[in-house]
Amino acid sequence: xxxxxxxxxxxxxxxxxRALPAAVREAASRADLIVHAGDWVSASVLDDLERLGxxxxxxxxxxxxxxxxxxxxxxxAEFEGVRVxxxxxxxxxxxxxxxxxxxxxxxxxLVFGHSHIPWDSVTPNGLRLLNPGSPTDRRRQPACTLMxxxxxxxxxxxxxxxxxxxx
Length: 167
Prior knowledge:
With about 170 residues, the chain is an alpha/beta fold. It has helices at about 20-30, 45-50, 65-70, 95-105, and strands at about 1-10, 35, 55, 75-80, 80-85, 110, 120, 130, 145-150, 155-165.
């Protein structure tokens, strides 16, 4: 078996976009699990994604009580032998790998957001760190983005960063 993941963060609907881009909806419909690393802004985004498939998500610093009452600050689950954690913020990029090794010693994959900057690295202890960027607010990046990945037999495979048109 394999589990296909859609990784998104920082959707900021309706502040940065009126609705989720079509590319996010299409990728969600193909995924076995939708992972959202916070800053949804509107609970309607969570509702929309839950209609498209199972969601593993957390609240971010821009999310209100409506989302905080439905989502944890840190989410943890295991799929296909891969221990996954999701958090919104990991702090500055300098020293991130060392900090996350200390904070998540029992995790294989950490998905995070906040910066809107895509990130893919492996810590000295083997923890894979993935930030999908933002599908609605590119900030200083050349394009809006999301990620896909596959979990299979204890491995994280096929991690791909996708550019997203804001429609």
